[in-house]
Structures
1.
Amino acid sequence: MPMLKLMNNFGIVLGEPNSINCEILAKSKAYKKGAVIIGSYKLLKSQLKILKIKRKLKKIKTPEEIRKNDKVLNVLDIPLKFKKAFKVNHKESSNYVKKCLVIGHNLCLQKKIRGIINCSVNKKNLFKNRNLGVTEFLAKKNKVLNSEVMIIYNKNLSVVPLTTHIKVKDISKSIKKNLLLKKLKTLNKYYVKYFKKTPRIGVLGLNPHNLELKKNSEELKVIVPIIKRLKKKIKISGPYPADTIFLKHNLSRFDIIVGMYHDQVLSPFKALYGFDAVNITFGLPYIRMSPDHGVAEDKKKLNISNPLSLNRCIELITKLIK
């Protein structure tokens, strides 16, 4: 049977053990697409048995072992100690998830896979710095921290938060010209690279009604000067007030809306599209994405979770690595 082209493989990091990850993975299209599952074979097998989900598993040692049309979940086995499949010790879980992420990162740099999808992680247990997520973790490993961009992608509209997982009281002081400039450049460059289209970018202000563009506002001090600087190079406009930008007649004007903080753009986006979205990191030397939802620990044994967002990741990464 012919081997898959090496450069057309991608990895799926299994992520947090105490979660719905194994369930949605088994329900997803991963078994059809030659994905390299990076995680514990024993955990996946144990959880699927409890959930009464039947899916053929195959333990592999290298991505090269994957064969086309096998219709199995190919698992690059990463050992994990546990007594109960849905109640893994937090310390064991944290070390295991970090190890899986680093292995995925290294496989990408070694050109053994083209990119990774990481299933959801529990940031509270995984990172000592609560402001850190997988986006920042991988950006730091690739030495591009503060140039990386978190984009939540839907084919109709994408959103980008300038700042990600920080306290609301810290947002204003975190909005700097250099940060906004670097992120907007990365955003435009990688959107063109992946989607072969120059995006129409709308930038929001920080304050209600943009604080009427008063002299000492973040809008006039930071946001307006950067938009003016970039206007000749990219399709960008703003700042727009956040309370009206997501009205239907406004949305058709943009491919991407950039907000100043996480919930400013993520809340309305999820109200519009639910979990029909993909979290992508722009700025890395490889493709990295994840489903746009959390670990859902309260649903981990119920077998009711929807793999829609993971399927969107699989569909998109398969398209991008062709």
2.
Amino acid sequence: MKHRDLLITETGQWQVCKPSREWDLLRTPYRFHRFLTEVEDALESAIDEVDCLPQLRLLVRRLITNSYWIQTQYIDPAPETGSGVIMLYDEIGYPLTVQIATFSPGTRSSIHNHGNWGVVAILKGEEKNTFWRYIPNPQFSGWVEPVSEIILLPGDLISFTPDAIHCVEVVGDEPVVTFSIYGETHHSKRFKYDPIAHTAKNF
């Protein structure tokens, strides 16, 4: 199966995006510092950060295609949490989060949004994403309903708009390893949802 580039929005419906052309991906060598610079350039030239998600998907796809070391940089998940994270770049004032995360089999996240755009590439393992939609309700702060789901495989890449809501679960017997890059976190816009109590809390 060909690797997929996907987009998920606040509607909860995922869509397959036009794939990058192979000749746009190949760069030898393609250094991590160049990736960061090109991401920054794309964001600075964009009128709306969400509008440049196609360019950001291209850059992430280019990085994982040309930089083998990305495929080897991961840590074992901690037994207490079922996850482990390597921050690939951390500079005071740098507005982006760039990391490689590992999740144990059976690990499941809360239902959440990210409060900004994000692009995630699956490097190893299989991950089920369930997508939700927020339903305005004057009596409840966080009424959400499941809309769709998809199992992501190694090589798949998914991008999110700020209001996209999902939860993820590792399926299969091997850990999931992901490369991810997120826009600057706006904690006032990032929520964790309780589908039973219909509440939303900042996290």
3.
Amino acid sequence: MKKDIVTLNELEKEDFVCLFDLALELKKREKMGVLDTFMAGRILGLIFDKHSTRTRVSFEAAMHKMGGSSIYMSPRDMQVARAEPVKDTARVLSRYIDALAIRTYSQELIEEYARYSGIPVINALSDKYHPCQVLSDILTIIEKKGGYEGVRIAWVGDGNNVAHSWIMAAAALDLDLVLGCPEGYMPDEDVLEAAEKRSGKQVYVTNDPFEAVSGADVIYTDVWASMGQENEHSQRLAVFKPFQVNQALLDAASDDVIVMHCLPAHRGEEITDDILEGPHSVVWDQAENKMHIHKAVLKSLILDNR
């Protein structure tokens, strides 16, 4: 049966656990030099409206390292740019490829592809959610902290698409998540309400970054102005300045806190250079784990859900 990952709400707790276990096993195999070929003859399609380094390369590398291949498609070069309906494109691509990863602005567009595709559709980022990013982040926490149960995770900054996916993951896995966001830049109410409905608990959100990181085992931040918000950059700099991840903020967290950032980072804005390059930072392992979780996602959706 076809399964998609468009928000993380499609996954039950056991689905998360299976993906983490599979990613760790595939990572171990790669480090041992094992050459996997179980995706031979399988093709991943990528439709990317937004610029990408880590997401595109990690998806392509994941597919190739498992013996499969990928096709990158710019919407500007496709017939959707000339008003072909998405439902037509989705059904045609389903006859050619085995899975489709989409990185775009509109969450609704991804959901429309998923509705009409006969193959798994993966949200590789929308303005609303970034589910695979958070899967790889939790994988990193499992490696660095021995698991996620009892680990206090503090999100500091904009209540953006990554924050939304953290909220959904917290509801599914009963994570100890606190979000510190400026007034006016809180997570969307519908996301918070959906999480509360699923878990029966409210996700705690505060406007005080120091309250958010108090006793935290993980501090997570992201850029203050995401793609498509460049015209708000100057305004956001002033609003978000107290939310910078710097040494003063780290001093309020646990002694062995780890610092995460999904990259690219604007050094000197949301995070200082000394923290990004310092001993608490795990951002490079975090970036690598995108590839390993993408391996698990692709293998699970393409091979294990037939």
